[in-house]
């Protein structure tokens, strides 16, 4: 697919110039799959913001409680979390990792490091 939609050389760059920074950047894990799906998860280095989009992968689970975790945050306690563009405070930090509690469904999260 990269060969079809990518710029010339995109397929080769996957092997010759891989994005190794992603292993040290904030990362989402512990997603309640197969009930919850992620349609987007990426880190904006210029704003120190992790963008996560969730959806109900199992429509029967929509509206039920769930959670996911974030690791590799520099100071998880001082992050700002937005849910659908509004401040969100249903999260905790344990051992440097953030756990976000939410409901299963189409949601947009922004986790910004201070």
Outline:
The chain has 114 residues and is mainly beta. It is 10% helix and 44% strand. β2 and β3 (49-56) form a beta hairpin.
Q: What's the architecture in CATH terms?
A: Sandwich
CATH top level label: Mainly Beta
Query: Mean pLDDT, nearest integer?
Result: 93
Helical content band: under 10%
Overall body shape: globular
- The strand count comes to 9
**Assembly type:** single chain
Total domain modules: 1
CATH topology: Immunoglobulin-like
Number of helices, counting only DSSP H or I runs of 4 residues or more? 2
The percentage of residues in β strands lies in 35-45%
Largest sheet: 5 strands, antiparallel
The helix/strand class is mainly beta
Query: What are the secondary-structure elements, in order, as H or E?
Result: HHEEEEEEEEE
Low-confidence stretches are none
Description:
- This protein has 114 residues and is mainly β.
- It has a single domain (20-112), classed as Sandwich (Immunoglobulin-like).
- It has two helices and nine strands; from the N terminus they run ααβββββββββ.
- A five-stranded antiparallel β-sheet has the order 2-3-9-5-6, with no helix packed on it.
- A hairpin with a 4-residue loop joins strand 2 (36-44) and strand 3.
- The termini are far apart.
